[in-house]
Amino acid sequence: MRNRPPRKNQLSSYFSNHLHVSLASLGRLYAQPIATFMTAAVIAIALALPVGLYIALDNVDQLSSDWDGSTQISLFLHTHVKKRDAEKLMQRLEMHKNIKKIEFIDKEKGLEQFREISGFGDALKYLDSNPLPIVLVVHPKINNNQPDRTTALVKELRKNKLVELAQLDVQWVKRLYTFLEIANRSILVISSMLAIAVLLIIGNTIRLDIQNRREEIEVSKLIGASDAFIRRPFLYTGIWYGAIGGGLAWIITQISLLLIENPVHELALLYHSDFRLSGLGAGNTLLLILFSCLLGLVGSWIAVSRHLKEIEPS
Amino acid sequence: MINFDNISKRYPGGHDALRRVNLRLAKGQMAFLTGHSGAGKSTLLKLIAMIERPTRGQIFLDGVNLNNISNRKIPYIRRNIGIIFQNHHLLYDRPVFDNVAMPLIIQGYRRQEIHKRVRAALNQVGLLSKEKAAPITLSGGEQQRVGIARAIVHKPLLLLADEPTGNLDPELSLEIMQLFARFNQVGTTVLIASHDLELIKHIGSPVISLQDGQITHNGLPFTA
């Protein structure tokens, strides 16, 4: 049939229509700032919670990866072993293909460390002689968690006559990793549930919006608007809700980080660490906003596909 | 332009709105559809605009069998029709200009073209000075003319009007009808449902009378 504008015009006006509709949708939200803010705030809180948990987990991960490199075997030598013999042993072991480096802790240094860390400093004054053995701290070469090789190394070291006790400090690292894995999964579950909540919030908001604009939808259908044309403003509204909610979620997490940053740093200092909280980062912030826009789009799509069909001119 | 072939329409619940209606309206013709309320006038218009579908029979619009048009394609059929309602169906949240521009925006016209055509349409209905006004500030007759401007702005092949003068005084009604006659003179096919027999006689176009869902008269206005 006739009544078609020329093709060339159609394409450019298609894009200008998208631009126009997206701005008009934003304008509509801006015209009702309080209602918009409340909806966006609910979305933001639902997003900020998993984001906050993620940041916490990420920080713990970083902290523990520092420790990962320090999987170490403590070789407690017999107390009668002379320092010279111990040094010889160390030189020999440093050639070992599975050993990265060795720390030498002689009796005096061991005593000093013990005094510093244990808090029994005063008690040590009453000892006549130094009861501590020489300790060699062996750092194995670790390539991506090969516990078997490390265990084999421990067995080998135990056979040495000078060694009284070889202790592998790896068990608690394994436990920590298992715990982190559980935390990771839990966050995934919580995130999924909250993402669904965001979908429902946006879907419901768009549903109300559709009902409020019933008349406009009816008239548009009567004068030949395609479904895509009628859908468009609602989809953009959903995307905007997602974008605003995502932005607010980012602000909420930043404020929370600021609030707990100092106490965390103080705690870290107590543990002789200069660990500092790291935030979301630019890439992840972008990802958060994009994901929340996507949630907005999907949520409004669900509402639109369910409710637009109900409105037909009569 | 319009060709009804043995059309019946039964609404859910068993009410027969139209019974075996055969009707032809040639391209460029203007006709009135009369009858008491409930005679089937609105149903007939709704079938053409594809707001309803017939229970039986076939409708051809400009040679296209409407039975073959899927719901998804309905918008493209409606773009060839201008529809005017008794209660205007204007959107009160936007000025007159934006109301009239809607069909053009929907069809993806460019801005300059939209401006040109909207102003031309408003000029034709004598409301060019009101383009920035809010519809609510206009009188009933003016609102109806905005509705007409919106119906003709995209130069449709066919104009359908359902009781366009229902709420207007006789003088304004005549003005509106003369407006339709003018569009008809430049080639648009016009079908107007109205029960205002005096007015119809005055215009002198052919009349199709409906009674209980059947056509009882099709021709020149009768003198009753």
Helices and strands in order:
The complex is a heterodimer of chains A (314) and B (224).
Chain A: H1 7-31, H2 33-68, E1 73-77, H3 83-94, E2 99-105, H4 107-118, H5 121-124, E3 135-140, H6 147-158, E4 163-168, H7 171-212, H8 214-222, H9 227-270, H10 281-307
Chain B: E1 2-10, E2 16-25, E3 30-34, H1 41-48, E4 56-61, E5 64-65, H2 74-78, E6 81-84, H3 96-106, H4 111-124, H5 140-152, E7 158-162, H6 170-185, E8 189-193, H7 197-203, E9 207-211, E10 214-219
Parallel strand pairs in B: 3-8, 3-9, 6-7, 7-8
Antiparallel strand pairs in B: 1-2, 1-4, 4-5, 9-10
Helix pairs in contact in B: 3-4, 3-5, 4-5
Describe this structure in words.
- The complex is a heterodimer of chains A (314) and B (224).
- Chain A has two domains: 14-66 and 175-307, no CATH class; 72-169, Alpha-Beta Plaits, CATH 3.30.70.
- Chain A contains ten helices and four strands, in the order H-H-E-H-E-H-H-E-H-E-H-H-H-H.
- Chain A has helices at 7-31, 33-68, 83-94, 107-118, 121-124, 147-158, 171-212, 214-222, 227-270, 281-307; strands spanning 73-77, 99-105, 135-140, 163-168.
- A four-stranded antiparallel beta sheet of chain A has the order 2-3-1-4.
- Chain B is α/β, with parallel strands linked by helices.
- Chain B has a domain at 92-154.
- Chain B has a six-stranded mixed beta sheet with strand order 6-7-8-3-9-10, sandwiched between helices. A four-stranded antiparallel beta sheet of chain B has the order 2-1-4-5, with helices on one face.
- In chain B, helix 3 (96-106) packs across helix 4, helix 3 packs parallel to helix 5 (140-152) and helix 4 (111-124) packs across helix 5 (140-152).
- The longest helix of chain B has 16 residues, at 170-185.
